[in-house]
Amino acid sequence: MLVNCVAYQNGKKLGDITVAEISDYVTRPECFVWVALFEPTESEIDEMALEFDLHPLAVEDARKGHQRPKIEEYDDSLFVVIHTLEPSSDAADHELQSGEIDIFVGRNYILSVRSGAEKGFQDVRTRAEQEPELLSRGPGYVLYALMDAVVDRYFPLLDALETELERIEEQIFAEVSPRANIEALYGLKQKLMVFRHAVRPLLESLGDISGARVPLVCAGMREYFRDVSDHLQRLDQTIESIRETVSTAISVNLSMINLQENATMKRLAAYAALIAVPTMIVGVYGMNFEYMPELHWRYGYALVLGIMAAVDGYIFYRLRRSGWL
């Protein structure tokens, strides 16, 4: 559906306009139109493609969705794909919800197509309208404002993942099921992979508009896009750091499992030794000797029990001192 369709001139808002009026405003000097769509139908996308003369390859990508984050240049226009990340709307589900924003930028227009992202960008529009000097730079500034808003929303989510990792690390050395720790760590690793797929490709593509050659629609905005690139680099480095810590935590957790198994095996071996000695002694009396030793001793039974208890006591003492029990 159509969220907003607003015309601006010299950094000031002229007013909301209809789709039919777009062609009248895009031809005015120092004027551009900012349109926002949310999960539009194919007919709505086709209508905007006709109004702004969008490149067919970019339109095809916007129709299909699920694109890799990228920045592509078509003649004097840009097509930008950004992934949004939000906490799941289900409180019981701790997964990240991924969305997509396709942005078409031209000399006198900017069109954003939002899919899968619940939170909109009305705050970005309000911020831009409060800065007429920057908004007068045209669609290039709006593109920066949208990208900056998306990237800024990444930081609290990544901080939450760091907090979750710290909690899991504390549980590794506590009386918590090792299986539960492994599952939590792998779940965290999957979230980091979603983050990486959103950040790394966009960081690579952003070099095309923040480097030596800047597209015409982004003229004069190099330092702003460089600032977004710096934020993405910080995010990328943090993601890699957390991923390495998660891998280390998984290794430590597996080592703790091995230590627990070794301790269990030691205990089992110690109990087997305690049982083996009495079994060996008693086994002698299970053999059918014609001349059985001590057969008619009155205290033979008590003596054998005493010897077994003494030997087991000594073995238990030595195993306890060695840490096996």
Write structural notes for this entry:
It is built from 9 helices and 7 strands, in the order ββαβααββββαααααα. The chain has 325 residues and is an alpha+beta fold. It has 2 domains: 2-256, Beta Polymerase, domain 2, CATH 3.30.460; 262-321, Magnesium transport protein CorA, transmembrane region (Methane Monooxygenase Hydroxylase, Chain G, domain 1, Up-down Bundle), CATH 1.20.58. It has a 7-stranded mixed sheet, with helices on both faces. Helix 6 runs antiparallel to helix 7 (178-210), helix 7 runs antiparallel to helix 8 and helix 8 packs antiparallel against helix 9. The radius of gyration is 35 Å and the shape is rod-shaped. The model has no long low-confidence stretch (mean pLDDT 83).
Low-confidence stretches: none
Number of helices in the DSSP assignment? 9
Radius of gyration: 35 Å
Largest sheet: 7 strands, mixed
Distance between the termini: 70 Å
Residue share in β-strands? 15-25%
Q: What CATH architecture of the largest domain would you give? A: 2-Layer Sandwich
What overall form do the CA principal axes indicate? rod-shaped
Return the CATH class of the largest domain: Alpha Beta
Structural class: alpha+beta
Number of strands: 7
Written as H for each helix and E for each strand, in order along the chain, the element string is: EEHEHHEEEEHHHHHH
Q: Report mean pLDDT, rounded to a whole number.
A: 83
Task: Output the CATH homologous superfamily of the largest domain.
Answer: CorA soluble domain-like
Instruction: Please list the strands of the largest sheet in the order they lie side by side.
Output: 2-1-3-7-6-5-4
